[in-house]
């Protein structure tokens, strides 16, 4: 295809040899299949910040700590400089998150460089070597749904151990490669130390359980988020920590009276069934 103008600098810089086709134009980026030597890769071309929706921008600034205060003031302002800073911060978040997570062993695509607002990525493929489908595009058997759900919960744990939360984890941002799910799309990743981090983490896990619950209804009843967060907060979370998917409220909060009266009712019922009167 004719080389899109945003990809021309990468051809000149020898980062890519040819643009093969366009995969998708999403909310934040356009993704192209490119050829680099004898390999196919993906080139993610970020749209300018002005083209993104307001909701995404606030969600992103919410959880992101910007250290340099001059820059953070600039990013809040609506000047040209402010907009530019916001934009590059957003784009760099994904590059930084992907390398940090790859190093931590999270199933994410390998990065091959970031140049002029374009990220070159490993192309995730299916068994035929075509770009992998998103989870949303596939139907799963119950067993597979339970397996992938657990795998992705463990990936979320691994990310948290590396200090990050995806922030937009769902069936739309997980690709199903020939060797299982791979997580993509991280420009909104938030630090696990951010104020609203738990709410974002819990939302990610609820999206996952709601999706997999379509194929394995019992998945909906799991509650990994609170269990994982409690371990994380107390410094006990490890990549291989055993999880139950249940969260027990602390004894203080438990409704002991209610539980006892339910037990008593059950006993009364049973006695009645056996012919004893109260
Ligand atoms: N590394 C990759 N390998 C294969 N396909 C990819 C890769 N990265 C992205 N894609 C494809 O491009 C689509 C958009 O990518 P991504 O989710 O990163 O961008 P986005 O702008 O957030 O898009 P959306 O708004 O659809 O979420 C993905 O849904 C996927 O189909
Ligand atoms: Mg996406």
3D architecture notes:
- The protein is of the alpha+beta class.
- The protein is built from eight helices and nine strands.
- The strands form three sheets. It has a five-stranded antiparallel sheet. The chain has a two-stranded antiparallel sheet with strand order 6-9.
- A hairpin with a 2-residue loop joins β2 (29-36) and β3.
- α3 crosses α4, α5 (142-161) runs antiparallel to α6 (197-212) and α6 packs antiparallel against α7 (224-233).
- The termini are far apart.
- Mean pLDDT is 87; it is low at 50-61.
- Bound molecules: adenosine-5'-triphosphate (ATP) and magnesium ion.
- Magnesium ion is lined by residues 26, 172-173, 185.
Q: So what's the oligomer here?
A: single chain
Percent of residues in beta strands: 15-25%
Instruction: Provide the gyration radius in Å.
Output: 23 Å
- Elements, N to C (H/E): HEEEHHHEEHEEEEHHH
Which molecules are bound in this entry?
A: adenosine-5'-triphosphate, magnesium ion
Average of per-residue pLDDT values = 87
Label the structural class: alpha+beta
The helix tally amounts to 8
Strand tally:
9
Which percent bin holds the helix content? 25-40%
In spatial order, strands of the major sheet run 1-2-3-5-4
